[in-house]
Amino acid sequence: MTLASGPDRALIDRFLEMLAAEAGAARNTLLAYATDLNGASSLLQGGLGAADGAALARLAESWAALARSTVARKSAALRRFYAFLADEGLRADDPSAALPRPTAVRPLPKILGHADVEALFAEIARGLAIVAPPPAAWRLAALIELLYGSGLRATELVSLPRKAISPDRPFLILKGKGGRERLVPISDRARQAVAEWGRLVPADSLWLFPSGKTHLSRMRLYQLIRELGGRAGIPPDRISPHVLRHAFATHLLEGGADLRALQAMLGHADIATTQIYTHVDSRRLVELVNQRHPLADMKPRVDARARPA
């Protein structure tokens, strides 16, 4: 594989780091993304990061002889790459609309069941049940309560200011991807966990989760969650910060949450993202229609032709 050079290489490395830290992407997935992005950078002569729609259209023309599934994979990699650049403020636009969209089945996201989540919190409780728990145990409790209880993104979580969460305020106003502000609900459990951890945070810290001269890194958060998952009996390929955010969304939707409210809580610009992100099985959807639709309380209409003479 030919590696990109110059600005493209730095952007690709940064993107792959995000995939590993936030989404918990497997090694093979990262290699596939790296191959597609480095290949595109080579074809664009090092201009991948700055490419416009016309350049991407020319790139797509070079894929004409490839299988539909391969084109779908390459397009998906580039779309995700440009969305990342736009979200991080590394470029002002997203030119990926020029890329082809061959029909492909989008894989369902990973999900933790309720039993998995209970196992995680049981492990956290064991860590706090000893005499004089270490600060790391209190920090882990606060991190997991906020990830699963509020659906924060990994970057949003680790970069929270020290005073972002108040004991007497059940929400915070957060500026997330693309500079969009949203209201994030903070549960009583999460506020209590943050209050306990906050007593151990140095008074002069700018961050709620400090580490050295800055805050906890996304990669370290990812490692902590995998370690916790291992102790709780959850395979490492099934858990990451992003999976906990998805579990937050899925379990709320299963409990009857409104999809639009969920969209606002997650900070999605497009509700289509929420619909894909929150995987709900068909049985639950049928139950929602039968129980929540206005027609559910109406008596069935009797067809005149079926009436006895």
Q: Could you explain the architecture of this structure?
A:
The protein is mainly alpha-helical. The chain has two domains: 6-98, DNA polymerase, domain 1 (Orthogonal Bundle); 114-247, hpI Integrase, Chain A. The protein is built from 13 helices and four strands. The strands form two sheets. The protein has a two-stranded antiparallel sheet with strand order 1-2. Strands 3-4 form a two-stranded antiparallel sheet. The chain is globular, with a radius of gyration of 23 Å. Residues 304-308 have low confidence and may be disordered.
Give descriptors for this structure.
309 residues, mainly alpha, DNA polymerase, domain 1, hpI Integrase, Chain A, 2 domains, two-stranded antiparallel ribbon, 13 helices, globular, disordered C terminus
